[in-house]
TrEMBL record:
Pfam families in the cross-refs: TMP-TENI
Protein name as it appears in the record: Thiamine phosphate synthase
Originating species: Hymenobacter bucti
PANTHER family documented for this protein: THIAMINE-PHOSPHATE PYROPHOSPHORYLASE (PTHR20857), THIAMINE-PHOSPHATE SYNTHASE (PTHR20857:SF15)
Domain Thiamine phosphate synthase/TenI: 19-188
InterPro entries for the chain: Aldolase_TIM, ThiamineP_synth_sf, ThiamineP_synth_TenI
Pathway(s) the chain acts in: Cofactor biosynthesis; thiamine diphosphate biosynthesis
Keywords assigned: Thiamine biosynthesis
């Protein structure tokens, strides 16, 4: 029996109006995990946002960077950026049960590092909604072949989630290609009602 399709959400990269309330509402949905990604934010600013979230949601929050905050607040996991991944000589020290993830931009990268992470993002699968000019170079047929041959083998690791341009009109293609799930960003945060936008995606 195949694992259920995962739907994850990345936070908006910049501060949002009434953001703690919005994130709490989104975490109350059937949201697999929230990736808290705030490029350029210092640790103190991120810590204040974490403290504003419901503590019971912490196991479903994954922080991009700052492993000490991941341990301190017993968050769900740590996500490494490309630069952090390159600088890390060994797996960061995490608590039992906390996951380690990262993002790749080719199937070859996943194959080389497939045993080091608990799950990974592959991007951009479609033209990005949140980054102007960030176009996809993937062929869905090639991805489908990869997932239904190599990644379908028993014990294949890690699960690969699609990122980049995932919206209501494309999420069915992600499922058909064989991805383990999808991570969404622009389709939610470019909407005037992010919670409603996420619900619509979840129902797609």
């Amino acid at each position: 029996m195949s694992a259920p399709f995962r739907l994850l959400l990345l936070s908006a990269p910049t501060a949002q109006l009434d953001e703690p309330r919005l994130l709490a509402e989104l975490l109350a949905q059937d949201l697999g995990r929230l990736h808290l990604r705030k490029p350029g934010w210092p640790a103190a600013q991120l810590e204040a946002l974490i403290q504003a979230l419901p503590p019971q949601s912490y196991p479903r929050v994954v922080l991009h960077g700052y492993p000490h905050l991941v341990r301190q607040y017993q968050l769900g996991g740590l996500h490494l950026t490309a630069s952090q991944r390159a600088a890390a000589r060994r797996r960061p020290a995490l608590l039992p049960g906390q996951t380690l993830s990262t993002s790749f931009h080719s199937l070859a990268e996943i194959t080389r590092a497939r045993r080091r992470y608990d799950y990974v993002f592959l991007s951009p699968i479609f033209d990005s909604l949140s980054k102007a000019g960030y176009a996809s170079k993937f062929d869905l047929g090639e991805l489908r072949h990869f997932f239904w041959t190599q990644a379908a083998r028993p014990g294949y690791h890690p699960p690969v989630l699609a990122l980049g341009g995932v919206e209501a009109q494309t999420i069915s293609l992600v499922r058909q290609a064989g991805f383990a799930g999808a991570a969404v960003l622009g389709a939610v945060w470019q909407s005037p009602d992010p919670v409603a936008a996420f619900r619509a995606l979840h129902g797609s």
